Amino acid sequence: MDKEQKAFQIAIDGPAGAGKSTIAKKVAAKLGFIYVDTGAMYRAMALYFADHGVKAETAGKNPDLFKSQIETLADKPDVTLAYRDGAQVVLLDQKDVTGQLRTEVVSQMASKSSAIPKVRTKLTQTQRILARTHSVVMDGRDIGTVVLPDAQVKVYLTASVEERARRRYLENVEAKKRGVPKTEEDLNLELIKKDIAARDDQDMHREVAPLKRAEDAVLIDSSDMTIDEVVDAILDLVKKAGYVPEGK
Ligand code: DC
Questions:
Q1: In ligand 1, which atom is closest to the CA atom of 115?
Q2: What is the pTM of this model?
Q3: What is the pLDDT at residue 6?
Q4: Cα–Cα distances in Å, from 166 out to 19, 27, 229?
Q5: Is 141 touching ligand 1 by the criterion CB < 6 Å?
Q6: CB distance 138 to ligand 1 below 6 Å
């Protein structure tokens, strides 16, 4: 990055399954920025909680107990990102846990533990430090609203529940063909739709940092757009925001 040019920040928020990570990775590669998947950071914390005996069900059965269990542990783990061959890896206490973050146990725990303020404060701090020292494309739920309120480009990326469910279903069908184990639920379009609607509801209605469009975020509905069309739309916003690529 040019020393004269301050780190450039692109915030991409939106509901689960809108294609944020695919799009954010491509935009970052085009611009030579680092991609920060904040969901993966919440997942790494969740893995730590699960490995230390906390159960996601406790959040529903005894919310006060769940909160105190999480608060006791939240300060302990060190969650950082590293980049190997251009890809983001997540380090939990210096150990690469990238391959362990997409299980059902971790998803459930991340969804519950990310609602606890102490967890959010800790990760928000780490995310802000990253964005101060590097130009970033950061995706999540609260990037434009809480983490980087001064980001030069803010996008709220969404798609209809039907379209997001259809994409997830097709991904699962393809994964199964490659030999990745998939459950009956993973291959049932109606159940996937219900699951996405429930996650939307949870993300949008939690007390702390709920998913919502920042007032100054540009809304992109990708329901009828290709990945490249969305990437181009964002690159256009970056240009309009006055970003000058290195060497130009
Ligand atoms: O995007 P994802 O599914 O990997 O996110 C995992 C969980 O973390 C999900 O329940 C939403 C939550 N999350 C959050 O609360 N804030 C963020 N900035 C990113 C993710």
A1: 15
A2: 0.92
A3: 73
A4: 12, 24, 19
A5: yes
A6: no
Gap from CA of 29 to ligand 1 centroid (Å): 22
- CA-based angle 93:106:124, to the nearest 5? 55
Residue written as token pair 């279903």: 169
Nearest CA to ligand 1 atom 20: 39
pLDDT at 1: 47
Q: What's the CA gap between 220 and 233, in Å, rounded?
A: 9
The mean pLDDT of 201-212, rounded to a whole number, is 88
Taking the mean position of all CA atoms in its chain, how far away is CA 104? Answer: 16
* SS3 readout for the chain: CCCCCCCCEEEEECCCCCCHHHHHHHHHHHHCCEEEEHHHHHHHHHHHHHHCCCCCHHHHHCHHHHHHHHHHHHCCCCEEEEEECCEEEEEECCEECHHHCCCHHHHHHHHHHCCCHHHHHHHHHHHHHHHHHCCEEEEECCHHHHHCCCCCEEEEEECCHHHHHHHHHHHHHHHHHCCCCCCCHHHCHHHHHHHHHHHHHHHHHCCCCCCCCCCCCEEEECCCCCHHHHHHHHHHHHHHCCCCCCCC
